[in-house]
Amino acid sequence: MDLTFIYSTAILLLMMMDPFGNLPVFIATLRNVPQNRFHRVILRESCFAFLAMVFALALGRSFMRIMHIAPGTLGIAGGLILLLMGIKMVFPAPAVADEKMQDLPEPFLVPLAIPLICGPGLFAILVTIRGGDSSATFLNCLAALFPAWLAQTGILLCGRRIARLLGPRVLDALESLMGLLLTCVAVGLLINGINETYGLQAK
Q1: Cβ neighbours, 10 Å, residue 55
Q2: CA 100 to the chain's CA centroid
């Protein structure tokens, strides 16, 4: 196993899942769910999201071959998506409460598992990682995905307690910091994708 790849990829995937940014949405969506059901709902939705992410990892390279997508091209696309997500995290739009969403007693699969935990951007990055790196074997990717998923699940399970302890300002600051780091990773993906597509050598 490539421990450097696993460590760096796990951090990237955790930032993509954005547990601190999702906390307010989860708490608002599950506001009518009793405390004794809150943890069960979080675990169930996190497991759904994990299965979706494993599905993306397993079929990443096959999808690229079928669609005739070059690794460099997908790297550029993934970098652009990551850049937009990072900018959105640094400069978040004002949260708007969805009354219909809050009235649901217990959401199922949508919108918590998909797209909040496992959204289109995370799908794209999983396919990009799986299809464009020689170190990105399925086992290495899975070894990186599992601790990232475990960390975000733990944060969400303690969501109500964390929200009370940190408050909205600290949560916003954490999301902005993660967005800044994500933007840096996105720029790197874009540069690598352009270099690979056009055969440029980094100096």
Answers
A1: 13
A2: 25
Give 117-137 pLDDT, tens digit per residue.
987 778 878 887 876 666 778
pTM above 0.85, yes or no: no
DSSP codes joined into one string, 79-94? HHHHHHHHHHHHSPPP
User: To the nearest whole number, what is the mean pLDDT of the chain?
Assistant: 81
Name residues whose C-beta falls within 8 Å of residue 193's C-beta, 6 or more positions apart in sequence: 71, 72, 73, 74, 75, 76, 77, 78, 79
Alpha helices in 30-113 (DSSP H): 35-67, 71-90, 99-103
Which of the residue ranges 13-17, 34-38, 198-202 has the most confident prediction, judged by mean pLDDT? 13-17
Joined tokens for residue 40: 């069960």
For tokens 């959401």, the residue is 107
Asked if omega into 71 is within 30° of 0 (cis), the reply is no
Distance of alpha carbon 65 from the chain centroid:
24
